[in-house]
Structures are given as structure tokens and as C-alpha cells.
Amino acid sequence: MNNPNISFSIWDRAILTAMIRRLPKKQRRAVYLRFWFDMTIQQIARKMRLSWSESHQLIEEGVSRLKDLCLRHPTFSKSNE
Question: Which of 21, 40, 63, 77 has its CA 20 to 30 A from that of 69?
């Protein structure tokens, strides 16, 4: 993840990576391209041979599903108490 405003420990990154692996293959790929490789939705659409809206939808659904998975994981949920 290339966002300088977000800092993950090595353990947080490992857990997050494990959570991402639980996403369906297309969602997982779109999320990796967007957040690990900092690609735009248009670039992802081209790379995955999808329309812009399909790429956007994959990312939105992937992030939503990932958020749900993380909120149920003890490491991430304890910060919400």
C-alpha cells in the first residue's frame, strides 16, 4: 500500500493480506491493483479487460467485503471498542 498516511505493522499487513486472499479472485485482483499498485480504475479496467463500471464495482464490493472481514477479526475489531 502506497498511502503515506496509513501505517501498518508487519503483522497488520500479514493479517490484511490473509483477509484479501478470502475475496473472490476478480475482487482480490482489482483490490490489489488499486491499493498495492496504485492503479486508477481506468487502468484496472484496461488490464482486466472490463468496463470502468465493472472495475469500480469490483473494487467497491471488495473493499466492503474486506471491511466486514476485518471488523470481525480480533486484531482490527479491538480498536473499535
Answer: 40
Residue 22 and residue 77: Cα distance in Å, rounded?
18
Asked if residue 68 lies in contact with residue 32, where contact means CB atoms within 8 angstroms, the answer is no
Secondary element (H or E) of residue 58: helix 52-72
Q: Nearest to residue 34, comparing CAs of 50, 15, 11? A: 50
Would you say the C-alpha torsion 70, 76, 78, 81 has a positive or negative sign? negative
Q: How far apart are CA 41 and CA 46, in angstroms?
A: 9
**CA–CA gap between residue 11 and residue 68 (Å, rounded):** 19
What pLDDT digit, counting tens, does each position of 58-73 carry?
999 999 998 898 888 7
